[in-house]
Amino acid sequence: MKFLKKNWSNILFILFIALLIIPQTRKPIQVTLNRLIAFSPSEVAPEKRETIDSYNWLLADMEGQRHNFRETEGKVAIVNLWATWCPPCIAEMPSFQKLYDEYGEKVNFYFVSSEENEKLQGFLEKKGYSLPVFRPLSQAPGNLQSNTLPTTYVISKKGELVVDKTGAANWHDSKFRKLLDELLEE
Hints:
- By secondary structure, the chain is α/β, with parallel strands linked by helices.
- The protein has 2 domains: 2-35, no CATH class; 40-185, Glutaredoxin, CATH 3.40.30.
- The chain is 40% helix and 17% strand.
- The chain starts with a helix and ends with a helix.
- 28% of the residues are buried.
């Protein structure tokens, strides 16, 4: 009993590490930790904003219908690059679903993943998400490319990258919704 009292913190630490090593428990722990540290995304300072170099980007929706990203030119858009195996991506999806439920008619949402449709559809159904998911058919415009998941871009009506966020964030935060409202009023 003395041993347990003396080493309880070490035992908890070892147990936590063991849970992170086991694949079945690692992913849920990573998702939970990412949700805990996800804050509202930061806005790019107006003087540092880049303008999208091209809207020419072919995408396919889950039904296989082709879309050109040009459809969003002159509109506020959110582009999220994600994957079903990515814990930070999974962590931010509930906040994206709430944001989509609230702004889906006003903002163009693009959740872009290179995974197979069956995998994506299974994930969406299991989680109960109704997000508009697309697969890329051509290379993304230069300033919408990233090697890190998740990466999210918020594009103004003028084509400026207002938010360029890598990693999980709370997208349904009041600060971010205020920014979206301002962008929609422009």
